[in-house]
Structures are given as C-alpha cells and as structure tokens.
C-alpha cells in the first residue's frame, strides 16, 4: 500500500506481520500491539510520527524496535489508545533493553517526545534517560503524570542529562 500516509493499527490476533509489511511507506502510525507479534526485519523508512500505546504486553520492546526501524522519526508519543486503557497500562516488566547502538532517528531527527501516563517506575526512568541523553535535536519532551496528584514528582526529570541544549521539558 504505497499510497497510505497514515494508519492506526490495533491488534488482538497473533499475526499482524503481513499488514505491518504493507504499511512500510506510512508517514504517521499509531500502534497498539505486542512486540512479540512481529518479526524484526521490517523497516519504516518514511515514518515521521509514531504513537505507541503502552497497554499491551512488551510494548517497550516494540518501542525499541520501532526506534531502530524508523530512521526519519521526528515525533514519538507514548500514550494510551483508548480512554479505558489507562487503568491497564503495564509497567515495564523486567529490564528495558536499550538498542545496541543509538538509532539514527535519535541522532538526526527526533524533535518531539511525549509520554502520557508516565508513572516513574525505575525502568521507565531508564527509558526516559536514554531518550534524553541520546536525542541530539530534541526540542520538546512532555510528560503527563499517571496520577494528577503526582505531577510534582515529574520534576525529577529536570536533573537528567540531555543531548540537546535546546530541549524544553514540559509537565502537565
């Protein structure tokens, strides 16, 4: 489907690879699926905007794979795909594995990073630290607390090192 520009993909069944292969030319993509559902040899060379839902098992592995597979990515949003989903957002279980080398999109293109319902767990902090430390052209990193009463706790992110001197941290 070389004409498709934008796609929203939510998978419940176990083999989405055929559809994903047909979406390699999209520029905007919204995903809600498990990384275990995909083979890791699909490239998204036109993708500039990615929204990834954090309510599926192993969503963090999908994030790592998408960063590695999307060299032109400019906007990354981690959120929920449905209003009811926020209750089911899974923390990163086990250890988040950073890419073996810094993805090209972080070095050259990513300028916006948003994380809605960020809940400050240790592995999530590691992921945020990695993004901030390695994204050279990041202009905005915006975070929304999982619980509104914990918004003030997001301020700890201010002390994390950033590769981009022009990066603004926003808290909502």
Automatic annotation (TrEMBL):
<dbReference type="InterPro" id="IPR050232">
    <property type="entry name" value="FBL13/AtMIF1-like"/>
</dbReference>
<protein>
    <recommendedName>
        <fullName>FBD domain-containing protein</fullName>
    </recommendedName>
</protein>
<dbReference type="InterPro" id="IPR006566">
    <property type="entry name" value="FBD"/>
</dbReference>
<feature type="domain" description="FBD">
    <location>
        <begin position="104"/>
        <end position="172"/>
    </location>
</feature>
<dbReference type="Pfam" id="PF08387">
    <property type="entry name" value="FBD"/>
</dbReference>
């Amino acid at each position: 489907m070389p004409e498709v520009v934008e796609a929203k993909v939510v998978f419940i069944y176990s083999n989405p690879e055929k559809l994903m292969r047909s979406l390699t030319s999209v520029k905007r993509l919204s995903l809600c699926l498990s990384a275990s559902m995909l083979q890791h040899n699909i490239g998204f060379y036109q993708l500039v905007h990615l929204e990834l839902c954090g309510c599926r098992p192993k969503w963090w592995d999908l994030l790592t794979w998408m960063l590695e597979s999307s060299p032109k990515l400019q906007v990354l949003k981690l959120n929920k795909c449905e209003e009811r989903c926020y209750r089911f957002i899974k923390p990163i279980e086990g250890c988040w594995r950073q890419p073996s080398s810094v993805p090209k999109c972080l070095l050259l293109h990513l300028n916006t990073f948003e994380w809605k319902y960020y809940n400050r767990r240790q592995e999530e902090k590691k992921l945020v630290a990695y993004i901030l430390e390695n994204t050279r052209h990041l202009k905005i990193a915006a975070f929304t607390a999982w619980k509104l009463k914990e918004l003030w706790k997001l301020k700890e992110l201010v002390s994390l090192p950033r590769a981009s001197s022009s990066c603004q941290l926003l808290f909502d």
